[in-house]
Amino acid sequence: MIPEDLYYSEEHEWVRLDDDIATVGITDFAQDQLGDIVYVELPSVGDRVEAGTVVGELESTKSVSDVFSPLSGEVVARNEALDGGPEVINSDPYGEGWLIKLRPVEDDPTASLLEAEAYKALTSD
User: Fold this and answer.
1) Could you tell me which of 98, 115, 112, 86 has the C-alpha nearest to residue 5?
2) Cα–Cα distance between 47 and 53 in angstroms, integer?
3) What would the pLDDT profile of 4-29 be if each residue is shown by its tens digit?
4) Looking at residue 43, what DSSP letter applies?
5) What is the per-residue DSSP string for 48-79?
6) Which of 83, 88, 111, 79 is nearest to 31 (CA)?
7) Contact 48, 74 (CB under 8 A)
């Protein structure tokens, strides 16, 4: 399932824009590849992040994977609920399993991101 109303990075993060705030998470494809997520490391509120750079880490029963920021901006929220229940990323990656919220600095934050059809093509065999 690839929601049509989101934007995607080639590193398998999704972005939902609400006015001047971008919510970021990992895609269903990514969580499926990772397996059961057991630990999440995220940036702190107030941190400045650059598009394409590592901003966190997801540890699963299979591996440890970097989380990349799809946008440049300031972290305005982190999903604190994941500290005690990271498995929600597996069960609801596009909802309660979001990772961070950013205030993007780009004039057009979605310019370098993929729309749903392009992401679907990237992830299909």
Assistant:
1) 115
2) 13
3) 999 999 999 999 999 999 999 999 99
4) P
5) EE-TTSEEEEEEESS-EEEEE-SS-EEEEEE-
6) 88
7) yes
β-pair type (64-68, 54-60): antiparallel
Which residue type is seen at 53?
A: T
pTM across the whole model: 0.95
What fold, for 7-105?
OB fold (Dihydrolipoamide Acetyltransferase, E2P) (2.40.50)
Which band of pLDDT confidence, cut at 50, 70 and 90, is reported for residue 125? Answer: low
In this predicted structure, what is the pLDDT of residue 107?
87
Number of alpha helices (DSSP H) and beta strands (DSSP E) in the chain: 4, 9
Q: Cα(117)–Cα(72) distance, rounded to whole angstroms?
A: 24
